[in-house]
Amino acid sequence: MTAKIIDGKAFAANVRADVATHVARLQEENDITPGLAVVLVGEDPASEVYVRNKHKSTIEVGMNSFEHKLPADVSQEELYALIEKLNNDPSVHGILCQFPVPDHLNETDIVARISPAKDVDGLHVVNAGLLATGQKTMASCTPLGCLMMLRDHYGSLSGLNAVVVGRSNLVGKPLASLLLNDSCTVTIAHSRTKNIEALCRRADIVVAAVGRPEMITGDWIGDGATVIDVGINRIPHPEKEGKFKLVGDVHFASAIEKAGAITPVPGGVGPMTIACLLANTLTACCRTHGLTEPEGLTA
Question: Which residue of 46, 89, 177, 213 shows the fewest CB atoms closer than 10 Å?
């Protein structure tokens, strides 16, 4: 058996096209343009690339993009004042602070300052609580992307057995809640889980979000299971000295022989994160104005 490759790049392109269609309709029928504000503190090279990509993608779907670049030594008070200004700006429907931030700033406190209605990263405790209790909320972008791909692959997730390997607040916990809300039977596994290999082998869906390069090998995967690899890790290239390659948390070469479907790294879950950020911004805009939410782009 060789697994079907779930092409996250192509799927994300379809999501962005769907968002663009909804944005154009909002502009034509309601004279409203969704706006996304991104705050970048300092000059972290990777963060600058991420912010640049988000800006480009936001403009491409017809949304307004507001970039705020602050010096690395910005005070907590200055940052909070900017967030409060964005909270009160009616042209801004989504707010994202690019992490990591310098050590003198606290990421949890920053998220807490963002209005839950504009928290398009889905990290505010209010949104996390609503998700955990099965209520309408703003779901974290990466877990939402995983859910979209699984829904597309299966149609219905009802009754499926899912194992999420990883218990982070960013991916593992919210994705477990999303799957549970779609009537999966969900187990969260982690570094202290006993017999984790056997647990994964019994699952219809295995989600790897543990942050360990190629930890999950083919013998962990049951025949025909669907594998969603959230991990992205840089490791030394085995054939090119001094070079690196990107791998997931799943050993792709062995897992593809057992799985029914699998996401690659790169080109799997990664592209869905920005696509779902755009979808969340659109959803936040529709909710703010009391308009119908875009079908298929929310949890």
Answer: 46
